[in-house]
Amino acid sequence: MLWYVGIKRTCLVLFMLLSAVLQAGCSVAPWERGNLAKTQMLIVPNPNRTALRRHVFDSKESSQGGMGAAGGGCGCN
Amino acid sequence: MQQEVVVAVIKKGKKTLAALSCAAMGLPGIQAKAAVPVAEPESNVQYGYYREQGDRMQAEVYHADFILPFADRVEFTFSADFDTYVGATPLYSAPDSVPDIVSAASAEFEAAWHMASPLLFSDESTSIENTITQEIVLREGFNYFVDPFNGDFNVKPEFKKEGKVRTIEEFIGFSVDETATTKQVKAEQPRESRNMPILGANLYLGPVTLGLSGGFSNEPDFNSAFGSSNLSWEFNNKLSAISLGYSLTSNEITRSGGHGSGHHSGFGEVLDETSTFNSFTGGFSQVLSKNTLLQLNAGYTAQRGYLSNPYKFVYVRGEVTADEYYNLLEETQLDDGDWAKYTDLEVVGIDVFREVRPEDRDQWFFATQLNQHIPALDASVHFNYRYYTDSWKIRSHTFELDWYQSLPFGMTVTPHVRYYSQSSAEFFGPYFLAPREDGHYSSDYRLSSYGKVSSGLSVSKQFAKGVRLDAGFEYYIHKGSLKMGGDGVGDYADITSYLLNASLNVNLSSLSSSMGDHKGHDMQAHHGAHPPAGVMAGHMLGKAGDMMVGYQYMYVDKAGDTVRGAYNASDESIVNNACAGKVCNSKAREMIMHMHMFNFMYAPTDWLNLMLMPKIISMEMDMEILPGADPDEAHEGAHLSEGLGDTLMMGLFKLYDNHTHHLHLGVGVSAPTGNIDATLSGLEDTDLQGYGMQLGSGTWDLKPSLTYTGQANSWSWGAQANATKRLQHRNKDGYALGDEIQGSVWGGYSFLSWLSGSVRGIYTAQGSIRGEYDGGSLLSAPTDFPENYGGEFWDVGIGMSVSPSSGNLAGNSFSVEWLQPVKHDYNGYQLEQDGSLSVRWGYAF
After folding, report:
1. In a mutagenesis test of the A interface, which of B7, B17, B495 is the best target, namely the one with the most A β-carbons within 10 Å?
2. Residues from chain B contacting residue A49 (CB–CB below 8 Å)
3. Are B284 and B295 in contact (CB under 8 A)?
4. pLDDT, greater one: B411 or B54
5. pTM, entire model
């Protein structure tokens, strides 16, 4: 059950990060968000390329999740 | 883009800021571009090519998507993916010292059984058995015989058996020590393809966005249906966002048994299994500063059902003992069920079995992404980390670093590196020297412990008019020794691979602001004048700078009778006359073709349009065996051929236009990008399919056309003459398709401002094939002979066209046409055509 303990620890770290983060972000005024609006600052700047790479990784590696959009199928032998 | 403009305005006069409400401006928040629906349709096409080293897997991936806004708060999304795969893939691995008899697994019970017999009946086994027998005789003396004193020199059954069992042990019990190396046994995979259409909708309700999507993924042996929903909520003045997602995937894994038709034939028992995945994700994003964004994600997926890979095997020693092999070999009438007395696994060879994975898997991941903008360089760095763990005891770490560097002229260059490391599944082994208690086995190298390093570069160029081109390259090194901590699986499965991609993004929202009322004008010019859907290159863009993206689908169905000339041919006539003096063994029963064409048009000047049209073709031909056929040469069942077709490049020249009458000349060249080596089995270098099942002509072709269109009031009319001239005498396989000329005349009437109907008459003459396959064809069906191609065809087309000139769908045109054969006079013997359907969508801007 090692993996379960890992999850618990991860959750704790996540919670601490969250509280720190929420306080930090209050100060960015709307007129200061020009850089954040750039395409290169999007979480996924190029969704098609990300989806293609995700399909390669999902087919060739054993870890799934955490890379965005839903999909299905195999196409992986 | 729009938002950047807003921000720039705000910077100039901060005092006006207070007056502007957040909602009205659409403040750039977490996902600046995602919080409002797109203003105009957006389209993407992408090509991807993945290749592993040597003769291993190659995959081609074609992707297209559209985003269409509908009302203020809704957008619809549609995407389609089409992939093809071919190449060798690892079947299983075993110790290097494994004898050939043992390693020759086939996945087919009968073959496995034939392979088992050499354990007892080969020259090799006879000589081993003789040695063992001599040893037993020396050991047992007269005991060896039933009753030597009576002159009965028959061997006692128990010693006979001991000799045989020990012979088998010699084969299967070869020594494996700790220093033994592992070898990978591979199998050639037939060419296969996958289709994946996905439909979706995004609903924008102020700070809350709801996304829904659903789709299918279809492969011959793996069908999957999936749906997902995603809810995100922006708060804290759009500095924070929470998202929740759920998705459900339902898979059906099938395999038709043994001597199937084409796909994975010879892959053993019939398989009909299902699996279900339930997936939950939660995310939190936070703006940390004016240059920093952080996202945290976590997710859980429950996979239930058949999770094994039906094409992977495992080597397991001791699952069936020498004693048990002996018993099996002694039974004269052996069938599938008999193995079940000794093992729960599916036997595919000596000590080789189909892999079995647990029927449930719980997966967890935690991921984080940090985006940091560096204003001095106009660059952004993205750092990603993901931790993954599952109930199969696989744990992985993924790190990725991307550097987005803006350059002048709308260029962005993005170098990136990625490192991935995973531990192995608890039931993984390169091979198993003893059975496992839980009965789970896999030697799939993707479940092993390894590391993978990759790095790549992508380049993006933004053109004016909202057109962006992207191209990327990434190189992967997969190695056991690259695992974090270094305790990987060894080097037998090490492999390198690369991924190439190129994509075109047409973003019409940035266009609408710069071009004002242009679109209305454009629509006026085209209104009512769209030629029927089946007419190729039938209309031109109105003025310099215009662009169009389009999609055209064509469906052709040939079913039923084989025709000679214009009359039905009997089977007897086909057998004796349709195969160039040979006896015909098979004939086609039905042929279905789906063709997907993607159309890009651009008008650099008023009198010239440039057109590019790649296409994807999917064909299926069902064959049947003719009476009296030679079974060794006949082939029956379904044969597939799918992939990229020939690519058409065309220039359209305006010759005359006075708003009532319009005349233009088209000069096109078709590049031989379609594969002409499609085989009956799907495996490379085996018997070729008939000429008509090849995806391209194999030659460079010239395609000239002359089109006249006219319109007055509600009426429109037109005529086109076009031809196809093969520019090369022969293609690489030794033949050239026939040249073709076609003439058509049509008339149309607009019932409503946006709806019109058309009637068209078409005459086509096509030559028969010149030359022939220089080998590699079975020559057993009419479709294998060049004289059975071409002919003269008269068809009538009935069509409808919709092109709204105002509202949300303005700029779109949609048309459909059915072609009904009237009189067809075929060269030689051919399958009769039932008709064809053309559907066309275009968007001009």
Report:
1. B7
2. 46, 458, 470, 472, 501, 503
3. yes
4. B411
5. 0.73
